[in-house]
Fold these 2 entries.
Entry 1:
Amino acid sequence: MSEGSRGGGTVARAPGVLRRRVRHADLRAVGEVRRELRQLLSHWAKLRNGEAAEVAEVATLLTSELVTNALVHAEGGAVVTAIAGDRLRIEVRDFVSGLPEPKAPTADGTSGRGLMLVRSLADRWGIRSHGVGKCVWFELGGGPA
């Protein structure tokens, strides 16, 4: 297990699994998570056929949206978990209670698109409450369950 400095960084590495902590308001971490996710997905893609490239692009986009939301709207940072098995499952957990509400974006607004994208592009998705905080998750690769 490796730890990043000051609460950020990869916290566990197992075949097919990415688990990374990101600090509150550390928006540089979004790019780092994307890079680590792409690395995980390059190995996963070798086990899959033609759909892997499309799944990887969608997964990267949706993960970026969820991590950004967590870092902007939730104190205490977040934990990102990606599990690449038969399907790809991404979870972004934060430590603030209250569930996000999907909103229709405005033409000139800078928010409101993240959950709409997840709802539109993921095969499955949801929000799970925890004792402290919540987990927004989605699945891709394998069609609707």
Note: The longest strand covers residues 78-84.
Entry 2:
Amino acid sequence: MPLVRIDHSDARTNPTEIATAIHDAIVSVYGIPERDRFQVITSRPATTIIAEDAGLGFERTDPVIIQIFTQRGRATDQKQRLYAAIADALEPVGVAPQDVFIGYVENGAEDWSFGFGRAQYLTGELTVPGA
């Protein structure tokens, strides 16, 4: 049940394909249900996205910034597989691997409400992933 925020330049004309590729990678690596999909897609002027190389020595051409908010508990190697799967899935839809930037944020069951003002993981309406 990750919440995924996707920011890209308005030069990209295929935001749905980008979002679907990211979701498919998450489903594949994390084994979440297909309909467990929560994404916010924002297209913005390229001048409003600054994503340099952090000293790694490469140039980005048209970055796609991905923020993944999810519950803690996944192993480091699983996260690394996810990053690779996302980059691999985005390349066929026109996003170069060097243009994929991912920020991963973890939290707990108490940090989610899916509606009705209730924390469904705490009330038992939803099962905590991996529990």
Note: The mean pLDDT is 95.
